[in-house]
Amino acid sequence: MHHREPMNNVGFEQISVTASAASLTVPARARRAEIQVLTADIYYVEDGGTPSATNGMEAYNGKSLPYLDHDYRTILLNFKAIRQGSTNAKLNVNYYD
User: Fold this and answer.
1) Which among 53, 56, 60, 79 could disulfide-bond with 45, CB atoms 3.0 to 4.6 Å apart, if both were Cys?
2) How is residue 5 annotated by DSSP?
3) Rounded CA gap, 60 and 42, in Å?
4) Cβ(15)–Cβ(90) below 8 Å
């Protein structure tokens, strides 16, 4: 069992993910987040590179990407996503300190 320190929500955003790489707008106090993928599948990267069908990880519609048990600020700042196929996706993002 992981022990987590208490978290406070410090922001929320919804991002449209198109054929162009979308980044997160990470609040100043945010160190953790939960990202929910909606509407369509995506490719994403955490290293600041450019996601594509040949570069990145797949996340499917309905998947949650939890960045909760450590300080993930650098990864969140470097996170970028594009849609798979022709349907735009949405990301719902809750940010925590």
Assistant:
1) 56
2) -
3) 6
4) yes
Per residue in 11-33, pLDDT (tens digit) is 999 999 999 999 999 999 999 99
Residues above pLDDT 90, as percent of the chain:
89
The DSSP line for 8-58 is -EEEEEEEEE-SS-EE----TT--EEEEEEESS-EEEESSSS--BTTBSEE
Q: How far apart are CA 3 and CA 1, in angstroms?
A: 6
The 3-state DSSP class for residue 65 equals strand
Q: What pTM does this model have?
A: 0.91
What is the C-alpha to C-alpha distance for residues 24 and 52, in angstroms, rounded to an integer? 17
pLDDT of residue 54: 84
